């Protein structure tokens, strides 16, 4: 038939002839093409993902070359498929067929440039995963777990400075030539695919013309709360490190915020807890007492989802995942990630989990949220096997991390013996949550505004690092503890997401969305009382409501998916502000009592 000739010619022989057929193709031809594409694309994606997994869990030149070759085959196939999809006359086609065709493939760089780009990203991953920082002549550590533990637990200002400076020097400077090549080639690729630059491409993924302006407005709504939290944390750091190191009117030193990047402030909780005499809500000691091994932590996370009436992880998950850092000498990338192998069967997590770590238990609930989403949309064509937007995927993960942190849920697990709800403990909980949500908003925004400015060519290469710290000062109220103006530095790239080609705005969007999702699911679960006391774990009604949205994947615009769950098409700060309203009031009163003014020297008002 016409269709068989069309497919065999495309996949076997003459691309040009196939394209001419596509111009006259019916919607049935298009659907058959999409079906064939789905099968072949899924197969190639699976092969490339397996090769990437092999590299990430055993860093070597051999595995790197294999992974790059796997992704090159995906890219090459996608370019051919795009050439076909792009030529269908879709007038009169159904919206679904049109949407699928739009998501098929993309134009690609030349073979040499594609290889160069893949190599640049792989090299930065290798630098990130294998760099060791020596704290003395005998002790040298990778990021995970050694350096991470120092940044999280040490109160030694100078030790943390040494670690922070060496990490930024070693990783940022080594990354710089690769990142410059990455920017050049990713921009070229974005322009090939009808975008102004890579930043424009990233914003276009959100399918709203005003996306950039929208996120700025959302942050303006949140900024008063962030400013109060910043002033409160600054006072606590001042009390810990003294006036030599912390200025009560200035920005925060970048290296004493609890991790290497100042991204999450959860490790400042012990300093910041408003009522330290109240019963603990961070149950590390109880987890040790109850022998929360890595396996038990993952089983607990999995039970959380089955308790909602949702999918359990497949049996293969336990055999194939990397849940702990290997002790056989392999170099691995430890950054926790959830993996879909695109065959609707194989789902894994790569994570260097620590026994009896509450922080890691939260991360497990988060990563299993990604796995749940992937399982919910596994029946869809490959082009739809994704979140409604990148922020949705992250919002689901972080929502589950939030609910798994509630005193109510932890008491159900037996990790908070004798828990009874009361206001001072609520405030402790709200601070713990603000340190992983509210404090991250300007950080995530800054990373992407910085890159948007780089990608658009607004900033000269020699000023890339200065621009990074300018934005961090003006928007986040954070400054480097030592001079970073040497143009050899490129500190923005020492974060996994930046050097591995992820936008960060997804994490900004997720923080807004997770509280919209929370509000709806709490209503569905029949919760009564303040939103911050809601725990919908165990509610099959909430699980069913959520599953209805998750199973849509990317088959509809994200605004439609949002409406399916929440009844509104717009992102809104109302639920997150409502959740933190008691904390906002308390912070204003506490800061006023201490004589602290919100803001800092060098702040830029929106």
Describe the structure.
The longest helix has 36 residues, at 157-192. The strands form 3 sheets. The chain has a two-stranded antiparallel ribbon. A two-stranded parallel ribbon has the order 3-6. Strands 4-5 form a two-stranded antiparallel ribbon. The protein is an all-alpha fold and 606 residues long. The protein is globular and about 75 Å long. It has helices at 2-12, 15-23, 27-56, 61-85, 95-102, 111-130, 143-153, 157-192, 198-204, 211-241, 269-272, 284-289, 294-306, 315-320, 358-376, 390-403, 407-412, 423-434, 441-455, 464-476, 496-499, 505-524, 540-550, 558-566, 574-579, 581-594, and strands at 133-134, 140-141, 252-253, 337-340, 347-350, 478-479.
Question: Which characteristics define this entry?
Answer:
606 residues; 26 helices; mainly alpha; disordered N terminus; 6 strands; two-stranded parallel sheet
Secondary structure blueprint with pairings:
Elements: H1 2-12, H2 15-23, H3 27-56, H4 61-85, H5 95-102, H6 111-130, E1 133-134, E2 140-141, H7 143-153, H8 157-192, H9 198-204, H10 211-241, E3 252-253, H11 269-272, H12 284-289, H13 294-306, H14 315-320, E4 337-340, E5 347-350, H15 358-376, H16 390-403, H17 407-412, H18 423-434, H19 441-455, H20 464-476, E6 478-479, H21 496-499, H22 505-524, H23 540-550, H24 558-566, H25 574-579, H26 581-594
Parallel strand pairs: 3-6
Antiparallel strand pairs: 1-2, 4-5
């Amino acid at each position: 038939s016409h269709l068989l000739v069309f497919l065999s010619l495309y996949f076997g022989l003459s691309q040009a002839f196939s394209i001419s057929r596509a111009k006259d193709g019916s919607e049935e031809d298009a659907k058959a093409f999409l079906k064939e594409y789905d099968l072949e694309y899924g197969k190639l994606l699976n092969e490339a993902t397996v090769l990437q997994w092999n590299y990430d869990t055993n860093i070597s030149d051999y595995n790197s070359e294999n992974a790059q070759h796997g992704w090159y085959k995906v890219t090459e196939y996608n370019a051919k498929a795009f050439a076909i999809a792009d030529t269908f006359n879709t007038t009169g086609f159904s919206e679904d067929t049109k949407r699928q065709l739009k998501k098929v493939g993309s134009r690609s760089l030349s073979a040499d440039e594609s290889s160069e780009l893949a190599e640049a990203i792989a090299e930065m991953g290798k630098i990130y995963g294998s760099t060791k920082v020596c704290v003395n002549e005998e002790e040298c550590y990778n990021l995970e777990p050694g350096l991470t533990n120092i940044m999280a637990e040490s109160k030694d200002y100078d030790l943390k400075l040494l670690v922070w400076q060496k990490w930024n020097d070693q990783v940022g400077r080594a990354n710089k030539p690769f990142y410059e090549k990455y920017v050049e080639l990713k921009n070229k690729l974005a322009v090939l695919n009808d975008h102004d630059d890579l930043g424009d491409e990233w914003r276009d993924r959100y399918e709203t013309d005003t996306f950039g302006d929208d996120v700025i407005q959302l942050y303006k709504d949140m900024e008063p709360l962030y400013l109060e939290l910043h002033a409160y944390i600054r006072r606590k750091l001042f009390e810990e490190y003294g006036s030599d190191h912390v200025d009560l009117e200035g920005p925060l030193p970048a290296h004493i915020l609890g991790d290497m990047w100042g991204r999450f402030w959860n490790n400042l909780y012990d300093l910041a807890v408003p009522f330290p005499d109240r019963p603990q809500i961070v149950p590390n000691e109880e987890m040790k007492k109850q022998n929360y091994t890595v396996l038990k932590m993952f089983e607990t996370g999995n039970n959380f989802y089955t308790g909602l009436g949702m999918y359990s992880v497949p049996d293969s998950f336990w055999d194939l995942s990397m849940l702990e850092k290997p002790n056989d000498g392999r170099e691995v990338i430890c950054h926790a990630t959830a993996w879909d192998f695109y065959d609707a069967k194989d789902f894994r997590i790569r994570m260097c989990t620590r026994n009896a770590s509450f922080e890691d238990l939260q991360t497990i609930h988060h990563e299993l949220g990604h796995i749940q989403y992937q399982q919910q949309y596994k029946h869809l064509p490959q082009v739809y096997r994704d979140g409604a937007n990148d922020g949705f995927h992250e919002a689901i993960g972080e929502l589950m991390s939030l609910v798994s942190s509630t005193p109510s849920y932890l008491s159900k697990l037996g990790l908070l013996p004798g828990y009874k709800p009361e206001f001072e403990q609520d405030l402790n909980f709200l601070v713990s949550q603000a340190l992983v949500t509210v404090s991250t908003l300007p950080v995530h925004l800054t990373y992407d505004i910085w890159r948007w400015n780089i990608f658009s060519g607004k900033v000269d290469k020699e000023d890339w690092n200065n621009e990074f710290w300018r934005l961090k000062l003006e928007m986040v109220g954070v400054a480097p503890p030592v001079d970073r103006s040497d143009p050899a530095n490129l500190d923005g790239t020492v974060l996994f997401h930046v050097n591995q080609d992820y936008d960060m705005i997804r994490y900004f969007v997720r923080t807004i969305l997770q509280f919209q999702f929370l509000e709806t699911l709490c209503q569905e679960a029949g919760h009564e009382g303040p939103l911050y006391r809601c725990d919908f774990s165990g509610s099959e009604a909430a699980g069913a409501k959520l599953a209805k949205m998750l199973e849509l994947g990317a088959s509809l615009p994200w605004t439609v998916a949002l409406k399916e769950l929440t009844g509104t098409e717009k992102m809104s700060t109302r639920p997150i502000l409502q959740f933190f309203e008691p904390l906002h009031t308390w912070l204003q009163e506490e800061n006023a009592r201490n004589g602290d003014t919100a803001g800092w020297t060098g702040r830029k008002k929106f």
